[in-house]
């Protein structure tokens, strides 16, 4: 984009432009995969250094661009949001290579400003916003420097320049804030956000034993929960996510066809719990809910198996007010197709487990069906409790994973336990399914809310017993309850190397982050409505909201306009009052001519209006004295101004 | 477009710029910036991405404020006076524009322009003088053109501009003829036309007087005496020149003027006293020096542009 007509940037301007571009790039680099982030960061520095004296040749630029794209393709393959962001970062890192004129500088700063916005598509945390604000400030400083170069303005001090830009922000602030709070929001997006091509760990709609490993090591938050009224015991905190029905020998899958059916009949025990769940972005429409959700807010629903869903994918922090209760009976009549589905096992897999299940069914004998089933489940739990151990250190699965686990290895984590338990149950003729979600939570004493971390991800089982319906059974809890319910101190967040020192820091940090989510990220069309409720403006339509926004924006603009007008105002109150007086005479056709001295004018006025003129002559003399004679006292000045204001022709 | 802008007529100085005559529009980079902001706002709204929205709105607010700031750079500015030393037609006039403001606000990066000629100036609280080069085409009184005062400060996103159209004229001397015959014979030596010999040895050195041509300074002698000395040809030449309109008879009208202008310069350079006789005008008495030269050249410059009234006087 080298333009022969645009003048070259000065040295100071170049430094500022590159600095602004680097500041814009920084938050984006922090969100990219580490290899890309560091690579592009170093690359940008090298490009700036290499092109400092003269622009890089086009061929070299092209080759570097190719390398960068190749790196993106290798690290973040596919087409997705993070790929697009990485490409943007690469382009920005290369752009300084051809930046020498004022126009180049402007376009670099302009394109650079896209980087903070791209960052917010990946992360909306307060750190990103702080970095972005700093970048925007530097970008405006660079623009100011470029404008100064264009206008041949002498160098201003760094402090003076910063004050100038900050003043611009302050001037625009009322309008920006009014727009932020009142600008009509879209309840549903016009077009969707592209998926990330690099999956962030989260609950999946499938489960392959061993697949949750990454999730169990990720201590980042998945949800924050605030209870109103009764709080469940940690042992009751099962956050229900996808329910997995179908097993192909390796992988459990969700029954998506059940999503269309209404929730099964359920009888709950007691009033249950009232709570609000702030869910971190899931990038899909999967929600989680405590135990069995009995009431879901607008925009959410439960499918046949009580998997909670949102009607749209959640790319931002979302907030759901829910009610849940433990069931007394849950789908007490299981329709035959569902029963068959909950008993299905792929043929030819895990023969030893299937044999064991059949053997147990035979041994259960002639007891009533319900009691026999319960006894079998209890028997399996007893076996697990007796012989099994919890470990995250599991070798890769073989063909008959459940057999290996149950008969040889006898150790594993929640996925292995739940998968093996359900297979065993199905083999012994008991309908069973795997439920995934989170178990347990950490109570943050600051703010008194519960934090569910991704490492709390869990898989358990549900077996169907006659008369009671689906019953939750957690075989992992039989072995390692402390893993499931966070009952050991080592599972406290912020605890490092056995020291509690950082726990308060973590607590405070997470509390701040929750406030941020609450205040900034959670603001949407719905919250906007509730914000206006105290003003008596609830249930405003989009048009009324637009009108209100228009009114407030007009006020903010008027404020800016007033600043303009004030700029033209005479600063000296004495002169202002005197000019106002002159204007009053001018309206009567007796204005003072530009060349006319004040007292001469007063004498002229007095000639045809003796009464007013005499008074005017005295005033004119006092004004001249105040202006040109040794300085009068403050009191006398104030009095003179008052007299000038009072005088009427 | 220019015709529609204020001021629509010539105005007396001092002229004060106020909001009625200041125009503000985004620059090309301002439009580009606006496009970027629009894209960002649309994206942020669509994805309900509050941090992005907040940042885009802050930027938009600052950009809007920069429009106002650009306006404030000009608002309250006063053009107190314009003036220029006369130059010969074809040379550039150095138009000096005295600027001041009532308030102490800093105004940087002001651009004063007429067509493609521009000057940049910053205004300090006591006022300042901008110097703008104006090309001249012909002798006579040249009206001050409509001047454009503009600024793109502070961010280069918006340009504020205003016009000033002072009701004032600038004098342009006639361009002296390039190849002219020597000066005519002095009044006292009629019959013995003598070419002026610039290389003559000076008889006499005298102290420098303001208005002496730099060429007549005797630099070596001055260096010896520690003050400026001037070769005085006056003694040598003696008589007073009369530069008469009639001496140029037979030439085209404009060339007659240019020849006289050249002779005035030559006489001045040689340090001779000269008088100027123009048709239908009293004679300008013999004298010498800068103010005399100005008087003579002014009279030449102000001769009618059209020859017809003088032809009768020529007879």
UniProtKB/TrEMBL annotation, chain B:
Name of one Pfam family that matches: DUF58
Annotated keywords: Membrane, Transmembrane, Transmembrane helix
Domain DUF58: 205-253
Superkingdom classification of source: Bacteria
Organism for this UniProt entry: Thermomonas brevis
Record bears the keyword Transmembrane helix: yes
Chain segments annotated as transmembrane: 21-45, 51-70
Keyword Transmembrane found: yes
Protein's name according to its UniProt entry: DUF58 domain-containing protein
